[in-house]
Amino acid sequence: MQKNNYIVGFDIGTKKTTAIIGEITDEKKIEIIGIGTGDSKGLRKGVVVNLEATIEAIKKAQEEAELMAGVAIDSAFIGLSGAHIKSFNSRGVIAVSGRNKEISGEDINRVIDQSKAVSIPPDREIIHIIPQEFVVDEQDGIKDPLGMSGIKLEVNVHIITAGTTSVQNLKTCLSRAEIEIEQIVLNQIATSFSVLTHDEMELGVGMIDIGGGTTEIAIFERGSLWYTSVIPIGGDNFTNDIAVGLRTPIPDAEKIKKKFGCVSSPLSDEEETLEVPPVGRGKKPRILSRQLLADIIQPRAEEIFRLIDNETKRMGYEKSLNSGVVVTGGTALLEGLEEVAEEIFDLPVRRGDPIGVGGLMDRVSTPDFATSVGLILYGYNQWKEKGISKDRKRGFWVKMKDWLREA
Q: Which domain does 142 fall in, by range?
């Protein structure tokens, strides 16, 4: 298999590291041919805290995916998360330079460069500059101004920054695992490729990805990304609540969460029970009600959604969510999570399962693979962009790739 025939995505999460290999078929479609996972013991809330443990997880995921696919991984698209991620909206304005006042690619690049002329602390770096809309002589809502005539060109952009040391530590792990980085991609951007639809992004949608250590938020409207945020609460907090509430070891609490977890008491059967292993030796397991488990973890789910709801309202985006909310990530597998979210947001809520690829899709069709599948789709759209001529009728997803400009 030639190198340019496959795409690799690495989702280096707090709970697990996932490597997925996608093959580009003769029909110009993407099929999953290799999947590998490794327990992440070197990350805390999405940030590398132990280099050796992170490298070990990357290598394990790499080896499993390579063995399944029968190809060697030498480069990949890498997901980025963590509470160190910060973002803000900015605006750039220039005068169109051409004699005939026709907007050129150089004008577009200049106005985007001008939009990032903002003060950024020395310990931070720009990861993405995402144009939201262009304005030509006060006419707004323009997605692609190339070739249009005008005197003044403006752009609204969403700028995403990350902690320099956090990014560098991630790069070091990939380098020592001998994996070349194709591009570092914000998790919310990658995940949106696999779980959101065109209509949702046009009408306005909130995406919530609840991972092991963090919860990632993104708000799209009019086909553009307008807001991103990361809060340092995730699935591990549910596990810790269970461990404390049921007085059971954390590994057993994680198993209980996955097998019996429900975040809505009304959905729990009062008569359904579960066996809870004790802390320490010499004690017998206890038999407790599943409803008790729901009573323990429901407040945590409500806390996360209330934090997001309050932040959305504070930033003025509560009226942007016209198509509702999509919840994804491993914690989205908990029963009753959508019902709790609907009650707090007072909006329709659905679970975000990854779509858009073939092959071994049945192995990765759950929310905990949303980011890794999204990284494959992100890379695939970059591949399509390289192979497509300057056709002004390009599809929505390819156009979106134009907006994801690396600084």
A: 86-162
Question: Is 107 a member of any domain?
Answer: yes
Structure tokens belonging to residue 366: 């759950």
Could you tell me if residue 114 is inside a domain? Answer: yes
The CATH number for 93's domain is: 3.30.1490.110
- Does any domain span residue 91? yes
CA 205 – CA 221 distance, rounded (Å): 7
CB distance 214 to 82 below 8 Å: yes
pLDDT in tens, 41-56: 899 888 999 999 999 9
Residue 11, token pair as written in the block? 């989702």
Residue 403 pLDDT grade (very low, low, confident, very high; cuts 50, 70, 90): very low
Kind plus residue range of the DSSP H or E element containing 139: strand 139-142
Tell whether 64 is covered by a domain: no
Tally the domains of the chain. 1
CA distance 385 to 390: 9
Q: What are phi and psi of 61, to 5 degrees?
A: -65, -40
pTM for this entry: 0.90
Residue 154, Cβ neighbours under 10 Å: how many?
A: 22
- The answer to whether residues 209 and 234 touch, using CB atoms and an 8 Å cutoff, is no
